[in-house]
Amino acid sequence: MTSSSQPTAVVTGASSGIGEATARKLAADGFHVFVGARRVDRLEKLAEEIGGTALQLDVTDEDSVAAFTSVLPTIDVLVNNAGGAKGLATVLDADLEDWRWMWETNVMGTLRMTKALLPKLIESGDGIVVTITSIAAFETYDNGGGYTSAKHAQGVLHRTLRGELLGKPVRLTEIAPGAVETEFSLVRFEGDEDKAAKVYDGIEPLVAADIAEVIGFVASRPSHVNLDTIVIRPRDQAPGSGARFARR
Ligand code: NAP
């Protein structure tokens, strides 16, 4: 599966978007990458292209996480990327199932994967956990409470580890992107392509490779350097509550 000297990485949610681009980047940088997601057909194609290993993974399912992690060797880099949003609704009109999906995937999924892989990361002698949160982990916006609350919780989970693991050979990096054009909006709007396209209308959003490039940089710093938090936005998006875009 891997040669003993080759560094290893796990990327969750590698069947599209940021995860797929990250798996490509880390493989190009010399990692053997274990790619996980629910859509195995996509993963297998990717793994063949990058010389990695495809393994089915549902981060919301305890047994699936156990099966995925039990076959892994020592791991140098874990990228907690699987996640996303469902719907846009006020708290008053909140769909509890959408909220549950967001919390299970973004928060509990990150918890399950991190908990299961920390021993293997520590064993590596220089492990790195990269968690893809969002600017939604720092800001709120109207109709976005399900996603922003989940991303805040995911961020807090990740940041808590920085203190708890002090003295252990594990670095922790939170990456908080603004608008990246991936399948994210398609998932949020349940496959409605017009609605999804409108999100990026008149702006130049980030692309998945922009984020992957930074993850490659994070994973290639010397052991004593911990990049704690990196916020990445398109030039056309300003910080602040709500989607502050410069649309042309
Ligand atoms: P994407 O293209 O929709 O990718 C999401 C990935 O997550 C897919 O590979 C999907 O694979 C996987 N996934 C979803 N549920 C899963 C589950 N239960 N178990 C395992 N994998 C699961 O969206 P993306 O933009 O690349 O999103 C990646 C991460 O970046 C997410 O955490 C998202 O919240 C975050 N983010 C995105 C943006 C943005 O604007 N795009 C901004 C900030 C943060 P399967 O469906 O095959 O399982």
From TrEMBL:
Keywords: Oxidoreductase
Pfam families: adh_short
Chain coiled-coil ranges: none
A molecular function (GO) term: oxidoreductase activity, acting on the CH-OH group of donors, NAD or NADP as acceptor
Alphabetized PANTHER family for the sequence: ALCOHOL DEHYDROGENASE
Record-stated family: Belongs to the short-chain dehydrogenases/reductases (SDR) family.
Annotated protein name in UniProt: Serine 3-dehydrogenase
Naturally occurring in which organism (per UniProt): Rhodococcoides trifolii
